[in-house]
Amino acid sequence: MTVTKEQVLAALARVPSPGGTALPDARVLSDVVVSDGKVFFSLTVDAATVKAWEPVREAAEKAVRSIPGVQSALVALTAERSPGSATPESRPAAPQARQAAHPTDKVQPGIPGVDAVVAVASGKGGVGKSTTAVNLALGLRDLGMKVGMLDADIYGPSLPKLLAIKEKPETIGGTRLKPIQRYGLTVMSIGFLIDEETPMIWRGPMVMSAITQMLREVEWGKLDIMVVDMPPGTGDAQLTMAQQVPLKGAVIVSTPQDLALIDARRGVSMFKRVNVPVLGIVENMSYFLCPSCGTRSDIFAHGGARHEAERLGVPFLGEVPLHMTIREKSDAGLPVVATAPDSEHARIYRDIASKVLAQLKGGAGGKAAPKIVIEA
Ligand SMILES: Nc1ncnc2c1ncn2[C@@H]1O[C@H](COP(=O)(O)OP(=O)(O)OP(=O)(O)O)[C@@H](O)[C@H]1O
Ligand SMILES: [Mg+2]
Question: Using a 6 Å cutoff on CB, does residue 81 contact ligand 1?
């Protein structure tokens, strides 16, 4: 029995969005891919409304699965957070940010014991930056590096979930914090310290001091590389953060669509403005890999990020497919590189990690290379 796109849309018409509009009319639907009884599409929503959309995503999957002939349905919810939209409180930092973005930048002191700090950033939210950051960190770990992770996304910390960390860090001597160890990574996130329900408005003024504290008042120990999961966007808040953290380089994550690429371009220029070398661009959700039959479909114009990297003269680090396993494992706190090390996905992330490492060792952008030695 052949399932058609029209049947899928008809089923979705019975699923209301949080505002009450039928899903196909809510302007959130991507193209609907139907291949061999497998249905895939995504919903792109405002990050502030993600919680309200999760039940809709589930209802949409259920509605599609109930169509005769449908074997499986994957509905991805991707969040769009307009740059700086959640961060009005950080606006006062802007003049300082601009000042320091001048070529005569004051260089941030390094973090004792940490050889290289690498930011994972995206111009736009919901592109899979945190997922990439975690798997990149694990890939670097597999290359023999001692790796730490700092969750700098104060407004939407992801590491507690992506690494399934529920415990609170202990204090050492009443002033310093002991990071959490998970999958061989040394991890710190504001999410370990504040309640998820803490209103955003309280977080605003805390942002910079929280970042500074997490960098300087945490016993990171000896690390070859610290991977920083940055907040999405390229607004003043992100610019300030890019300056506050003593970065050796930045990895930009983008999805292949034109709009995301425009944001990725902004990300690249933001780091260039603050003299941080861009180590490369990763194309996430590059193509859709059917979980059951392995068929590949380029639902978005795949390859856009590679092309953009070439245009911008920055390295292209790799393509990560859109795959159910990546999402399920990531959201369950079981990142693929740690829990399915022999999978093709893990291989892709390790390959990206080795390119990042090569960039760091080569002293990307002409900056001093960190003292990194790969253990045999
Ligand atoms: N390659 C992939 N295949 C399938 N799902 C993915 C992939 N990458 C990320 N996802 C899923 O997409 C969602 C968003 O990913 P993630 O939280 O990593 O994005 P983000 O860019 O960090 O978002 P934010 O801007 O909110 O911080 C998650 O549910 C994640 O599991
Ligand atoms: Mg994130």
Answer: yes
| Length of the chain (residues) | 376
Contact indicator for 244, 133 with CB cutoff of 8 Å: no
Q: Which ligand is nearest to the CA of 233?
A: 1
Atom of ligand 1 nearest to the CA of 47: 26
Q: Is any ligand 1 atom within 6 A of the Cβ of residue 322?
A: yes
**CA distances in angstroms from 189 to 102, 132, 211, listed in the order given:** 30, 16, 9
Mean pLDDT of 196-221: 69
Closest C-alpha residue for ligand 1 atom 15: 128
Residue (of 144, 122, 101) closest to 236 by Cα position: 101
**Other beta carbons less than 10 A from residue 94's beta carbon:** 15
pLDDT recorded at residue 206: 54
Q: Are strands 296-297 and 316-322 parallel, antiparallel or unpaired?
A: unpaired
Helices 236-244, 200-216: crossing angle, 10 deg rounding: 20
What is the C-alpha separation between 59 and 12, in angstroms, rounded?
9
β-strand partners of 42: 76
How far are the Cα atoms of 63, 71, 232 from residue 67, in angstroms, in the given order? 7, 9, 37
Question: Closest ligand 1 atom to the C-alpha of 324?
Answer: 4
Q: Full-prediction pTM beyond 0.70?
A: yes
Q: What is the pLDDT of residues 308-358, one digit of tens each?
A: 899 999 999 999 998 889 999 999 999 999 999 999 999 999 999 999 999
Q: What is the pLDDT of residues 163-207, one digit of tens each?
A: 999 988 888 877 788 999 999 999 999 888 766 665 554 444 456
- Alpha carbon nearest to ligand 1 atom 31, residue: 327
Regarding the beta carbon of 28 and ligand 1, being less than 6 Å apart is answered no
